[in-house]
Specification:
Blueprint: H1 2-23, E1 27-32, E2 35-40, H2 41-97, H3 100-113, H4 121-133, H5 136-147, H6 153-167, H7 170-183, H8 188-201, H9 204-216, H10 222-240, H11 245-258, H12 263-275, H13 279-292, H14 296-303, H15 311-322, H16 329-342, H17 345-358, H18 362-374, H19 379-391, E3 397-400, E4 403-405, E5 422-424, E6 428-430, E7 436-438, E8 448-449, E9 476-477, E10 480-481
Antiparallel strand pairs: 1-2, 3-4, 3-5, 6-7, 7-8, 9-10
Helix pairs in contact: 2-3, 2-4, 3-4, 4-5, 5-6, 6-7, 7-8, 8-9, 9-10, 10-11, 10-12, 11-12, 12-13, 12-14, 13-14, 14-16, 15-16, 16-17, 16-18, 17-18, 18-19
Amino acid sequence: MLRILSFLLIVLAAALGFSWLQDHPGSISLTLGNSVLDTSFTVFVVVQIALIAAVCFLVWLVRAFFKTPDRVGRFFSTRRRDKGYQALSAGILAAGAGDAVLARRMTKRSQKYLPAKKEPLVRFLDAQTAMIEGDHDRARAAFQAMESEPETRLLAMRGLYLEAERLGDANAARHYAERAARIAPHVPWAGGAVLESKTIEGDYDGALAILEAQRDARLIEKGDSSRLRAVLLTAKARALLEGDPSQARKAGLEAVSLAPTLVPAAVVAARALFRLGDLRKGSTVLEKAWEKSPHPEIATTYVFARPGDSASDRLRRARNLASLQPAHVETHIALAHAALDAGDLPLARLEANHALKKEPREGVFLLLADLEEAGGGSEGAVREWLGRAVRAQRDPAWTADGVVSEEWAPVSPVTGRLDAFEWKVPARHVDAHGAVIEGERPGAHARIVSKASEPAAPADPGNRIAGHAGPASAPVENGKAETIPVDTAKPHGAVQPHEEKPAIPVPATIPEDAPAPSGNRLF
């Protein structure tokens, strides 16, 4: 529109100019030697304009003549570059689709038309093609070449980090992640990898600093940041509990304030307070945690708060804890164990029966076996309860990525994921022969429990509340539970559900040779 308006204005100006010349006639005489040329002023102006146009056209022809070779070269260069970018685009799409043959053909074509020094994506395509071809040595060489260039250094770090993870080289993966985090602290994968590695190493202060930086950069939501901070503080408190209970108390209490439902935080905070002699505050922490999420570890820590307490004192503390959540199954289980230790078998039987009605799981039947043996029952009755325990639903346990652990840990021993452990019933699988394969760490030999499995050996009843499987009750006939004849004899030697250990315990830190995630990932 502007061009049309400009053209019209120029035409209007020219028309006005020639109209003015017509209204003001004049003459011009040009003398060249003996020749005299007389013409009107209007003709003279037209001739001058034509002469200027001719000169401009001549100059343009001369310039075009000298620039022709360069233009021809640019034409072929642009055509070559366009072919290279078309091949590069097709190659990246083929690599993303996993078509190694087409990706390699397009890689060679793009290398032919595009110099790798000027176009770093050619090296990237070469590395990705090598990865889907399985040529990891070539992929690493390509990433190492990209590392020397500032614009591709971060991309190279990412590729080398993934290659180190594939090989299970935790040190190398951590090295590249830390370098990437120094170059670009805002990159989530680098910050997350360094956060996990520092947690695995036990550098909780360093992990907390990285988490704080991620929160300030808004790479993580406020709620998620609080939860992860509570997990790290809990792990830190556990590490400091023996050597520095004061700092453990500080970290544990902060973790409890950030995540009130995180059971390990409340347990470690209470243990630190107990070590410092603050029984009242430690008990209060556990009571509040019990009200939100009853858990066997809370009950154990609360009941055994004072090592010198008698069994009757522990039963009194168990009654106090039970009053906070009287209807919960863990309340019945904890009170039954405490009553069994104190020799109050009628109360233990009553609470075990309540637990059985709510959750007939493995630990319930093991507790029934305890009561049967403590009451002087026959060996056949004890074995019957143990057999039912084998076939019953498993008790909840700390589980992360298929690993069942006796203790909570801040990271998964399989993937290194932070806050991976959950308190839940471990998964069970049935093989082709009908045997139950219990969930455990992938890659390890599964533990098979057949219906004729022998019961576990008796365990020391001194820690009956810790990690138990569940309540106990008498055999059920016609919908009614039988009464177990018991006396105060033989309180020891009962089989405890917590005695059956998981197939693979969770280490305090993940070994460097732990399997890393595999697979060819496209950036």
